[in-house]
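Q: Hi! First time doing this. I have a protein sequence and I read that you can turn it into a structure. Is that right? Here it is:
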Amino acid sequence: MSLHADAVATLGSWTPGQPGQDELRRRFLDHLAAHPDGLSRDCFPAHVTAGVLVLSPDLDRVLLTLHRKARRWFHFGGHCEAGDRTLRGAALREGLEESGLPELALDPRPVHLDEHAVPFCDPRGEVRHLDVRFTALAPEGAAHATSEESLDVRWWPVDALPDGVEDEMRDLVRRSRERWAAQSTSPSLSGGSTSAAADQPSR
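A: Yes, that's right. Below is the predicted 3D structure, encoded as structure tokens:
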């Protein structure tokens, strides 16, 4: 299955449960139907991206990155790459690369969608990112690192997020915590990361 087909299947089978989220889901699917290259950063003026919100195992802290270009705190994420096989695999790759964590337990279902403008993505002009967001748990006590795309990577209490974090990010944190809390047992890191890492090409 191609990345495009996986994205269509992933979004087509997901039920957000919120009217605004379902409108975005249909918008993303319409974009993919109209653009065979709709996940490529070359698709202008909009393309699908993938991200992941990383929580501590106790769900009390969230790991955020201070984006070098935007100078704002975000979850991990970015453009899909040629080697990505699935949306969840792209989200996992971004999370591992940008956090420096050795592994992540990724929930395979999207947890949140967002469309936002990015002024620095393309020299042709402003781009709309159609962001499909997943959630993952970090290993207990694992060390994180700052990548070249970030100014800082830091744990924040979920009830004391950094100044300037927008409402949609707070909504992402809330939905992610609810997703994990609703599960009777949290997946092991080996189980979660192995199933998602299998979507990635060998490096």
